[in-house]
Amino acid sequence: MTDNVTTRRAGPFAGLEEFVTENVPLAPYTCFRLGGPARWLITPRNEEELRQTALRCAENDVPMYVLGLGANILVADSGIGGAVFRLGNDYWREIRLEGDRLRARAGMDMQKLVLKCVRQGLAGIECLAGIPGTIGGGIRMNAGGRFGDIGAAVTGVTVMDRHGQIAQREKEDLRFDYRRSNICAPFIVEATLQLEQDDPDQVLYRTRQIWIYKRNTQPLSARSAGCVFKNPPGCDLSAGALIDRAGLKGMRLGGAEVSTRHANFIVANNGCTATDVLNLIDLVRNRIYQRDGILLENEVQIWP
User: How large is the average pLDDT for residues 147-160?
Assistant: First the structure.
């Protein structure tokens, strides 16, 4: 009886306290700087610690979430009643160059990787300039835009399932579509990218042009999670153009505001809450549906 009580009090991650912390505020880890705490924040230092904690989650029916650099997500004010994994230490940021082939672990910052490729004269991921996030998150959602998507460069992915089992997904097994991939495993561990040797000055020029375009058209310095809605299929106008045409630029609810620079961005002003952002997302979606008969789909992920 005593042993059972002790086990319950210790929780599902007993013995793993070096890299599992309870009731951790998530707002500082997100681009919105909003949201409540995680019941558990897990920061595994290597693949084995990731395997151990994933298995504990599976055995104890603990919901799992994976947090990169906090782009493209909105955490509810009530927080997350599960385990949030953050692959953020040096182990998860390791990259290896093998000629024009690059291997990157999931926690590598996409912007730092773009700069590394510029210096090495490696072309193929300039399209990621100005897009915040990690390689793991970027691949899962096929990050990109009008200049291309990361999926075009991916030739292989190492994944881990919720039971800690590792599998390799080769290029022929992978499918990348608009802001999605067919990767279902909860964890991307590592990815292989096929790049091309090029003049470093030319790679730098293209990267800089993409960055300048985004700096001039998007609120990159604001508290925002990127594009809120996906562009609707079969429509001549983007989600941002539809929102702009509806006169919603600058619309505010509480501390949340539709960006005046790019209508498909919502920015969090002082005093903003996650609920403010959620309410503004609903308002914009309803207005566009009433006006154009188009139901916009979220690109930003809402946790939980």
Answer: 98
- 2 or 296, higher pLDDT: 296
Token pair recorded at residue 184: 């279902």
Domain range enclosing 156: 95-217
Q: Of 248, 213, 215, 254, whose CA–CA distance to 229 is shortest?
A: 248
Q: What is the average per-residue pLDDT within 147-159?
A: 98
Cβ-proximal residues to 77 (8 Å cutoff; 6+ apart), any chain: 34, 35, 36, 273, 274, 275
Instruction: Please give the Cα distance from 67 to 87 (Å, whole number).
Output: 8
Alpha-carbon distances, residue 94 vs 148, 190, 197 (angstroms): 24, 9, 21
Q: Which of 86, 118, 142 is the last residue of a domain?
A: 86
Per residue in 246-281, pLDDT tens?
999 999 999 999 999 999 999 999 999 999 999 999
- DSSP character for 230? P
Same domain, 143 and 102: yes
Domain membership flag for residue 238: yes
- 236 and 251, same domain (yes or no): yes
DSSP reduced 3-state for 98: strand
Phi and psi angles of residue 146, each rounded to the nearest 5 degrees, phi first: -65, -15
How far CA 265 is from CA of 144, 217, 242, 244, 299, in Å, comes to: 15, 11, 13, 11, 11
Q: Which of 217, 236, 258 is a domain's end point?
A: 217
Task: Give the 3-state secondary structure of residue 219.
Answer: coil
Distance CA 27, CA 70 (A): 9
